[in-house]
Amino acid sequence: MRLLPSRFRRSATLGRRSAVTSMLLAFAVVVVLVTIFILTALDRMADYANRLDDERSRETTSGAIQTFQEQLHATLNDYAAWDDAAQFVYAGDNAWIVGNYGDMTANSDLFDVALIMDTNRNVLMAYQDGAPVTWSPQNFFDSSIWTLFDKASSAGAGTVPEAVGFVETKNGVAAVGVALIRQKSGELAQPVEGRRFLIFGRHLDEKKILKLGETYVIGGLRFAGAGDTAPNMVEIRNIHGKALQRLVWNSRMPGNAAYLQVRPLVYCALAMVGLFFLLLFASGSNTLNRLKADEAAARHLAMSDRLSGLLNRAGFFAALDALVLQSRRSNEDVALLYLDLDGFKEVNDAYGHGTGDKLIRGVAAGLKTLVGETAILARVGGDEFAIALAATDIGRAVETLSDHILGFFGEPFVIGERVATIGTCIGVAISPRGKVSGEELVRRSDMAMYHAKETGRGRTEYYRPEMDAEREERNMLEIDLRIAIERREVDVVYQPVVDARTWRIIGVEALARWHRTGYGPVSPEVFIPIAESTGLIDQLGLFVLHRACETLALWPELKLAVNISPGQFRDPAFAVHVASVFRKTGADPSRITLEMTEGYFIQNPERARAALAKLKQLGVKIALDDFGAGFSSVGYLRQFGFDRMKIDKSLVHALEEGGRAIDLLQATVALARSLEIPVTAEGVETEAQAIQLRLTGCDELQGFMFGKPMSSQEIDIIYRGNRLPGGMSGTA
């Protein structure tokens, strides 16, 4: 074969080189274009990730500021919508006000400024950082404080009388809330001009900003300085829209970080393009996961109760709805257990909110251990907890868990050097296969819980449809009772009290009776508990005392006994109200005995002792009622100095058994005699009982044998005719 001429070989070689060069050039162009495309894509993705992260940080910062304000609002609501506050503040108890509001501003993370003002904006108490202040609100706060004040004071019916916002102060920026001091139920028996308002302030200083940054993972969160040019910013504005302060932070630039990680790989070798995309994807995923984790942490914080660490009310409702939906798919039943602590309020009253908070944390820890990881546990109120669980055999699961919970509360709680004994009532509602919504479950379990409290503490009650009718009937009873008290349609009757030796009438006990319009008589065992639980007992009790004192003027030689409920006795102004009744009716206090049961003396001995001292200064006598039906402690018989003991009817009725019953009665009377306390026996129904009681040493008797509760006209006939009560004849 002949060889091609050299020029053709050179031409071919040059052609091949040219082709290779073209291919290399084309490849290079492709590589360059791909590189440019990749780098451009990377740059855009980095910029997008940076902007996304900045936007998430902005939303998180706004949410943190909103949570800061809402935490103050929640604290304000706890301290303003508080039965004790409604009693002591309006009674003018300065020691209580300073102890529960002023002193709490010292080293407190909840609030550092506390004021109490009247309707005319007059300052009644002002504390900051645990000490009284010298500044005036007009000089310390900006004008938006008065807008909040007007909003809270002008709240109409059905509107919560509270207002919260950020306010500029002499010390910087603070979340400030204004709320009407009222009962927990929202009721307040005070005229507009006599109302009191609670103002809390919680300053947002550099330390708290730093803590918010750490909590919500916002790097370099700080107040913006005069020369601060950070592009990321969230403004804090007052209720008027005025910017009070700016918050800025350092951008984390996650996109740039990812870009720097992958760029060397692109430059090193295009063969690593695939790996480059993989790393880019991994880096982006990590960034997104981190962002999602930050968002999840913020959402978790918003759904958690900061005191107990459990879910809060909002978090619980969200989790409960999800559980109900899941149970419909899994064909399981859902149960909701609603718990309310018995005696928690007394612990708070006796030892303060600090001890109460520790008790809440202890209860939460114990319940968390009992409930386990499969159920939902939340703190949904001040002393209320909720547990939701799903199972196929829900009845057995609820019964077992309820027994464990009641057993847990059967043991005392040790809080430092103090021991607190509390209980609980459990209301249970069940959603078969998730057919009942979460909201309805809460309503039903709450109703069952209150039914458990009314029918006996320390027990579990399941929701029944009849409870709706019972609740409606109770609500109607409450409305009608309120109207009857306002219209003075409650009657006062009198049961004779006789001398144990002669059986002659020497006094009467005043009792309330209610004939409900359109329905007939209502048992005191029904309407008295309603009055106590709704706060109507104060009006009812004072009305009975007033009417009885007026009637007592007809019987100059008789004594009067009137029952006082624990609800009245807790009122710090109760002695003032009693003195007012005596002054208006002209009654002689020495002829009047106020009868009280032992429960309140055991729960609050110090406060009870102070209240008794105020009453005794008026000249009235104090009797311990129903002795023998409860604890019957000799210790408090001695320390409280009662003027009379009333033996419970259960001891009287037991006399028919003889033997130990008589010995117990004799020992009880001997105990009273040794303390020089006169004894009245109630519930006397037979002559044999009366004779035995007289022989035992009782000096006064009361019961159906001598007369049922009767009208003042019937008592007057007995008194004027100097006859034995009950139509009896002869001498004892």
Task: Please outline what is shown here.
With 732 residues, the chain is of the alpha/beta class. Helix content is 51%, strand content 20%.
Layout: helices, strands, pairs:
Elements: H1 6-80, H2 83-91, H3 94-102, E1 113-118, E2 123-128, E3 131-132, H4 137-140, H5 144-153, E4 162-169, E5 172-180, E6 196-203, H6 206-215, E7 222-223, E8 234-237, E9 243-248, H7 254-268, H8 273-302, H9 313-330, E10 333-342, H10 344-351, H11 353-371, E11 376-379, E12 384-391, H12 394-409, E13 413-415, E14 418-420, E15 423-431, H13 438-455, E16 460-462, H14 466-486, E17 490-499, E18 505-516, E19 520-522, H15 524-534, H16 537-552, E20 559-563, H17 566-569, H18 574-585, E21 592-596, H19 599-603, H20 605-617, E22 621-627, H21 634-640, E23 644-647, H22 649-653, H23 660-674, E24 679-682, H24 687-696, E25 700-702, H25 712-721
Parallel strand pairs: 15-16, 18-20, 20-21, 21-22, 22-23, 23-24, 24-25
Antiparallel strand pairs: 1-2, 1-6, 2-3, 4-5, 5-6, 7-9, 8-9, 10-12, 10-15, 11-12, 13-14, 17-18, 17-25, 18-19
Helix pairs in contact: 1-7, 1-8, 7-8, 10-11, 11-12, 14-15, 16-18
Keywords: Membrane, Transmembrane, Transmembrane helix
Organism: Neorhizobium galegae bv. officinalis
Domain GGDEF: 332-465
